[in-house]
Design a protein that fits this description.
By secondary structure, the protein is α/β, with parallel strands linked by helices. About 40% of the residues lie in helices and about 15% in strands. It binds flavin mononucleotide (FMN).
Length: about 325
């Protein structure tokens, strides 16, 4: 395939980004994706021990990734994360070329990052947030629909309706995220006007991702009905259904407040599932695409198979117009 604007912007071969995934988007995963021609992102807390210094942990993750690839890779920084300014300074010192910010106001650090020569992409879930991110000077937006695993927008717009509206509203490149796992989703995203895709759930079930084997196997076993959106009053997120989501649904139906939900969840439920493998008491962030994931494979193969299978998808589409 020919390169899109995102490929030139990020210095990559194929416009496929492995999204940040709290606790589990580690250096090995990011390097494998980047080596295959996509772009891998490291999450600052990936593989971090509970009492570790998160700034030093990120520094060691970045060194590790640099030792595994000479291709570009980036860092995902959810803006509310603790010590974000110090994390940004490590990113600058280690000469990382790209940061994907999410879950906060892009006004806070975009100029600081751009002054240091770093490309900034911001994750958005509405047209309003996309135009705001553009006004803040980001290089591209990632339009993430509510099919996505993990935190989603309050308005729950699907990728199919969100992406073309964002494409029409901004002049900067748009990357589609949410509900993409194979060549069909990839081509559909490009047809909607996106210049590339970001995927999370598909990469969770890869050998290089450090998620616990229980979480990966649960993803492989799950079918189309096995994810659910909870915490709509607090911070909506899509996860695998389990005992925790059953309790959350009961609480929400009974009118529990955001505070009650927050108290019930406490801290560390995602880490408990995705790192410790406790699928009863933890939360596995997971996208609605989960039913399409049937095996754990190498992260590089995910990129390569999307690119190679895209030709067959295009051939089928071309036949419809020939
Ligand atoms: C396990 C998991 C954890 C995630 N954590 C983060 C995160 O820390 N920061 C972020 O910006 N997005 C996060 N996401 C969203 C992904 O980066 C990506 O945008 C999303 O997974 C795309 O949708 P998909 O799951 O349908 O592929 C997470 C997704 C998953 C599945």
């Amino acid at each position: 395939m020919k390169k899109t604007t995102i490929c030139y912007l990020l210095g990559i071969e194929y416009p496929i980004i492995q999204g940040g995934m709290a606790w589990i988007a580690n250096a090995e995963l990011a390097a494998a994706v980047s080596n295959a021609g996509g772009l891998g992102l490291i999450s600052p807390d990936a593989g971090m021990a509970l009492n570790a210094d998160r700034v030093e942990h990120l520094r060691s993750q970045l060194r590790k990734a640099s030792s595994l690839t000479d291709k570009p890779f980036g860092v995902n920084l959810p803006l509310p994360v603790a010590r974000v300014k110090e994390l940004i300074d490590v990113v600058i010192q280690q000469r990382v070329s790209l940061v994907v910010t999410s879950m906060g106001d892009p006004m806070s650090y975009t100029y600081y990052l751009k002054d240091a020569g770093i490309k900034v992409l911001h994750v958005v879930a509405s047209v309003k947030h996309a135009t705001r991110a553009e006004a803040c000077g980001v290089d591209a937006v990632i339009a993430e629909g509510c099919e996505a695993g993990g935190h989603i927008g309050f308005d729950e717009l699907s990728t199919l309706v969100l992406v073309p509206q964002v494409v029409d509203a901004v002049k900067i490149p748009v990357i589609a995220a949410g509900g993409i796992a194979d060549a069909r989703g990839f081509i559909a995203a490009l047809a909607l006007g996106a210049e590339g895709v970001q995927m999370g759930t598909r990469f969770l079930a890869s050998h290089q991702c450090l998620a616990h084997r229980n979480a990966k196997e649960a993803v492989v076993k799950a079918s189309d009905m096995d994810t659910i959106v909870t915490c709509r009053k607090l911070s909506p997120r899509r996860t695998l259904r389990n005992e925790v989501t059953t309790r959350l649904t009961e609480m929400e139906s009974a009118g529990a407040s955001a505070h009650d939900i927050e108290t019930f969840l406490g801290t560390g439920r995602v880490r408990k599932a995705e790192i410790d493998g406790d699928l009863v008491n933890g939360e596995v962030y997971c996208g609605a695409i989960v039913g399409m994931i049937t095996e754990i494979v190498n992260a590089g193969e995910i990129v390569q198979s999307i690119v190679s299978a895209s030709e067959a998808v295009m051939t089928r589409l071309n036949k419809l117009w020939s």
